[in-house]
Amino acid sequence: MPRAGSNVGLAERAYRIRRHAVRMGQVQGQGYVGQALGVADVLAVAYFHALRYRPTDTRWEGRDRFLLSIGHYAIALYAALIEAGVLPEEELETYGTDDSRMPMSGMAAYTPGMEITGGSLGHGLGIAVGMCLGLKRKRSGSFVYNLMSDGELGEGSTWEAAMSAAHHRLDNLIAIVDFNNQQADGPSTAMLSSEPVTDKFEAFGWHAQRVDGNDIEAVRMAFDLARGLKEPRPRVIVCDTRMAKGVPFLESRDIAHFIRVEPHEWTLALEALERGRSH
Amino acid sequence: MRLSKFAPRHAVNAGERKTTSAMIASIAPDGIATRNAPFGHTLARLAHERLGIVGLTADLAKYTDLHVFAQEHPDRFYQMGMAEQVLMSAAAGLAREGFTPFATTYAVFASRRAYDFICMAIAEENLDVKIVCALPGLTTGYGPSHQATEDIAIFRGMPNLTIIDPCDALDIEQATEAIADYKGPVYMRLLRGKVPVVLDEYDYTFQIGKARLLRDGADVLFISSGLMTMRVLEAAKALEADRIDCAVLHVPTIKPLDTDAILAAARRAGRMVVVAENHTMIGGLGEGVAGLLMREGVTPVFRQIALPDEFLDAGALPTLHDRYGISTSEIVRRVRKWVK
């Protein structure tokens, strides 16, 4: 089981997660790399500070469950699973290719460590509710983490699940909203605004926090608070993240939801990450 | 703008008996033997031995007979409120943790509202969730909001999903036990409340994926599912007076179809094949059987007794069953006409 690392260690993990994701994007020439770069710090905290799991036994009953509701973020989770030793690093070369265990959108049947099939948005939180009910029936101490996007807050099913989680007092549920304010047609808040997000969750009976999702220390503290809380309520951590974080020339670009970069830019991106690493 | 399809109607004549479209209207005619809540009682009994069974509903425990289970196993019952999407996804989550959830609602809400959640969270994952739904086809007079006339058409296209349409209380009891033992997702159409008992007269046992020839006959082969099997059994008796000799093949599993039994029965020369179902003509048992027969080069005279491709009227069930041709008397009338 991974041990809680220092902040320096988490920053290094986040760097490597980003690097794995960019290399997968390089192999395919495309991918949801912007989201992966944005959420890398959150994944680093999740996989190298918060979650209990066994890299070689992804079905271990005592594990915390990490659900990727946003199936199109698969590249981000593959990067974290590679870094966590669940998937071998060489396998990233297969990302998105025929018969790969790492398809473009995350599916449970394909990938060890992928708990659910996401992608049809607004499913994860409801499945998490059922898993939390099931874990309580089994008197398990495991948490269910559900990583969702701000876009999913537009799905009505998310709010059915939010109400349900509070009604059933699911204190073993931690939802993480990756709030990068970006969805397919433009900024999420311009498509269907979910603000004020934490107020909404609190009104639904949740314990809500909002942090800079690219501030590793802030994210780590939020995870610790969410796990340690004694109240019988579900918890949400809204993480404001920046698309393409760590690659300045992509961050500043009027970035598309699904980025395609010039072939030479993948190398530039890796170099930019490397430069950021030494800071 | 859609105008009323009815002319203005004034008060009924004094003394005229009014029919009712009440939700609770039973499909059981007066005088027939019934059993109460066969699904609920069977599930409650099974749950004593099968400890993984849990029950969930979306504000319809009383109307899907799940309240019987809830009363007997309150700690294993989850009331999810009026929220069919989380009903299905939470059932998926419970199945992921090793339980066998039985999720109940009305067939309209499962098929129309929660389709994506059944498809992606349950069926694509091949999870052990049983979706048991009341008011299938035309079994309420509440109009299209409650009439699941197209549920089978919707669900037949979903890979992995087994679809069951039982006929009577006996069938429901046996099917409930069978699907509890079966690993994988199941959609079962449910007759709830006082449910007729008719199959006790026949040497019948429910098996998933198996059709059963309930009676044989030389002129007409009825192929039917759900409550239409009781109707065609009655129709077959009535048609004896016309010297029309009818066979009845009951097909309670709509998917996977028992292709061997259907082909064997339909290949017998000289018989008209009449598929009868409590469902729209489109995409249900009738078209499933027709497709099978065409693919296999079996081409009997083929007729369908099913609901029309329309949004149906509100009204009393006996009125509507006559109006849309699925009452016993309408079956008899049509078959007489087709055979002559």
Structure notes:
The complex is a heterodimer of chains A (279) and B (340). Chain A is 43% helix and 10% strand. Chain A is globular, with a radius of gyration of 17 Å. In chain A, helix 5 links the parallel strand 2 (144-149) and strand 3. Chain A is α/β, with parallel strands linked by helices and 279 residues long. The longest helix of chain A has 22 residues, at 7-28. Chain B is an alpha/beta fold and 340 residues long. Helix content of chain B is 35%, strand content 19%. Chain B is built from twelve helices and 14 strands. The radius of gyration of chain B is 20 Å and the shape is globular. Chain B starts with 33 loop residues before the first strand and ends with a helix. The chains are: A alpha/beta (279), B alpha/beta (340). Chains A and B meet through helix 4 and helix 5 of A and helix 3 and helix 5 of B. Chain A: It comes from Mesorhizobium loti R88b. Chain A: The chain crosses the membrane at residues 32-53, 65-87, 107-133.
If interface size is counted as residues with C-beta under 8 Å from the partner's C-beta, which chains form the largest one?
A: A-B, 31 and 26 residues
Q: Which class do the helix and strand fractions of chain B yield?
A: alpha/beta
Q: What is the count of structural domains of chain B?
A: 2
Number of strand elements of chain A: 5
The share of residues in helices of chain B is 25-40%
Apparent shape of chain A: globular
**Which structural class do the helices and strands of chain A define?**
alpha/beta
CATH first level of the largest domain in chain B: Alpha Beta
Distance between the termini of chain B: 43 Å
By DSSP (H or I, 4+ residues per run), the number of helices of chain B equals: 12
Low-confidence stretches of chain B: none
- Straight-line N-to-C gap of chain A: 29 Å
Q: State the low-pLDDT regions of chain A, or none.
A: 1-6
CATH architecture of the largest domain in chain B: 3-Layer(aba) Sandwich
Strand arrangement, major sheet of chain A: 1-2-3-5-4
